[in-house]
Amino acid sequence: MSTTENSTDVDGVSRRDFLRAGGLGVVGLSGASLAASFTAASNRRAILIMMTGGVSQLETFDPKPEAPASVRGPFKSIETAVPGLRFSESLPGLAQRANRLTVIRSLTHDAAPIHETGMQILQTGRLSMNGLVFPHWGSLVASRIPGRNGVSTNVILPGLISETGVSAYRGQQSGILGTEWEPDLVTSDPADEPESIRRMYGHSEFGNLLLKARQQIEQGTRCVTVNLFDSLKDRITWDCHGDKSCSPATLFDYQAKLCPEFDQAMSGLLDDLAQRGLLDDTLVIATGEFGRTPYVNENMGRDHWTGCWSGIVAGGKVSGGKVIGSSNASAAEPTERPVDPGELTATLLQWCGVDGMSHHFQAGGQELHLVPHAPLTELWN
Questions:
Q1: How far apart are CA 208 and CA 199, in angstroms?
Q2: Where do the domains of the chain lie?
Q3: Is the predicted pLDDT of residue 333 greater than 70, yes or no?
Q4: Measured in whole angstroms, how far is the alpha carbon of residue 338 from the centre of its chain?
Q5: How far is the C-alpha of 80 from the C-alpha of 77, rounded, in Å?
Q6: Mean pLDDT throughout 100-122?
Q7: Taking a C-beta distance cutoff of 8 angstroms, is the pair 335, 326 a contact?
Q8: Fold of 43-380
Q9: What phi, psi does 363 have (nearest 5°)?
Q10: Residue 262, CB half-sphere, CA atoms under 13 Å: how many?
Q11: Which stretches of the chain are assigned E, i.e. beta strand?
């Protein structure tokens, strides 16, 4: 789907209005300045891995082996290092490391089932409204915490997400904070690493991206967002409609390419961070902006589904080997502890020293929380 520069987004606000709002800084901050309100957690870092396109819960972290084939899909599930917890057969490395992960199986939102809404909620904590472009989580952190050793506080790899179908904000800019706090963009070429490390991550773009993320963290970057795909147009991505005219990936691409490359890269990242003594201070979250339909379509793909999906969290001293929330027999809706993706935004902020509920924006005569959600404290309980 293509749109023009003046097209209207899901809130009735044109893209031009979005850009104008962000550029002019149309709101102020209540009380003391935003910068003075943050309390930094000096050694903490965070990596948000955007599984861009909306990864299927059924082919990754919430398989349903007892469901009919039309729901279950074509692949088997496997046991993990945690008794009773099963992953897709295409994720053997992460299955072996499941005791170091927390799995969330009940992510959900009720906004429009398009990529842009989920991207906004996950990375800013809310949908844009009334022309207001809310800041990327790393921009909020960067506005208080300067870079260390000349390294940026907030980095996005390898570039801003574009070409997702609708011309609307995708949650990766500084918005109402002003252009001073825009994320820095860094290429994904991880130069000067030994071959043994490159093999750990795998010789793939996913491997390059996550290796570069580790390099940034090691150099002092506090906030890293990794776009596993920075565009969805005419390429094989997690957006597995099986429609050759726009989203050609099918579930078989998950098995042949996407899941194996992600499995190796993510396993390599966790092992590498642990070996370097960085994992306890680095919170790592990997998820998509929504999930996929609880049935396989006629093209051996799945379509957009905001009702329920999964993600994983590691590092940051989170409790490993546990599951937060659960889904029904077709992974279509949560049956226990629904998790709004904005709770992950709040968790990233809190980990980095920003209390999103205690501080506010002044906007249109009202006060708005920086992020209108509490952190996901179950990660540490």
A1: 10
A2: 43-380
A3: yes
A4: 17
A5: 10
A6: 98
A7: yes
A8: Alkaline Phosphatase, subunit A (3.40.720)
A9: -145, 120
A10: 31
A11: 28-29, 45-50, 77-79, 86-88, 101-107, 154-157, 184-185, 223-227, 282-287, 291-292, 304-305, 309-315, 322-324, 326-327, 334-336, 360-363, 366-369
Per the document, the length of the chain is 381
Rounded alpha-carbon distances, angstroms, from residue 213 to 154, 204, 226, 269, 343: 11, 14, 7, 9, 23
> The whole model's pTM is what?
0.90
120: enclosing H helix or E strand: helix 115-124
Distance between CA 364 and CA 381 in Å, rounded?
Answer: 38
In the prediction, which pLDDT does 25 show?
33
Estimate to the nearest angstrom the gap between the alpha carbon of 360 and the chain centroid: 24
Cα dihedral value 235, 238, 239, 245, nearest 10: 20
Number of other CB atoms surrounding residue 234 within 10 Å: 12
- Our measurement of the distance from residue 292's CA atom to the centroid of its chain's CA atoms, rounded to an integer in Å, reads 15
Q: How many helices (H) and strands (E) would you count in the chain?
A: 11, 17
Token digits of residue 373: 């959600």
Nearest to 379 by CA among 104, 85, 42: 104
Buried b / exposed e over 153-173, threshold 16 CB at 10 Å, is bbbbbbebbeebbbbbbbbbb
Q: 58-73, pLDDT tens digit by residue? A: 999 999 999 999 999 9
281 pLDDT more than 60: yes
CA distance 98 to 83: 10
